[in-house]
Amino acid sequence: MLGKELLNELNEQITFEFLSSHLYLQMAAYCHSIDLDGFANFFVVQSEEERFHAMKFFRFINDMDGEVQISGFDLPQHDFKDILDVFETALNHEKGVTERIYKLMELATDKKEHATISMLKWFIDEQVEEEANFKSIKQKVLRSKADIAFLYKLDDEFAARTFVPPANA
After folding, report:
1. Which residues contact 143 (CB under 8 A, 6 or more apart)?
2. Which of 44, 72, 134, 135 has the fewest other C-beta atoms within 10 Å?
């Protein structure tokens, strides 16, 4: 059974993952507003992925006989200067998620909660991938400032993105 402190932090992470989902939906709305529908699709898929993460924590708490408590959150950021600002914001957000996951791992390790440690290892690997992905896209968007056709090529590429739950999750 999960200790109270760890359970509270895991529940906070569920809420944070749902906030992440909403942030990415807001980014999708912004992308639609500037006629980058492929980028909008990218963020809709990203939003679905964050909901998947929230539900992974949800199921884990239930499996551990804990009580899930989901709280509200502030409205996500909705004002962006341009597409580069969107990706800089997303990258910074993912870095914050990584910090949160690391703090959860430290707490689980301190409490010797081995099941939680095992579950969190998946999230640590996921965050490495998330940060690398956003760094790469941010760099591509930066390069597109010199070649607008490249931005539209990325937009077309992102239009094809779909969410497929990871097999190892």
Report:
1. 150
2. 72
123 Cβ contact list (under 8 Å, min separation 6): 53, 56, 101, 104
27: left (phi over 0), alpha (psi -120 to 50) or beta: alpha
Q: Please state the separation of Cα 37 from the chain's center in Å.
A: 20
Please name which of 54, 31, 39, 87 lies closest in space to residue 165, comparing C-alpha atoms: 54
166 pLDDT tier (thresholds 50, 70, 90): confident
Q: Which burial class, exposed, middle or buried, applies to 10 when counting CB atoms under 10 A from its CB (0-12, 13-18, 19+)? A: buried
Would you say 31 and 40 are in contact if contact means Cβ atoms under 8 Å apart? Answer: yes
What percent of the chain lies above the pLDDT cut of 70? 99
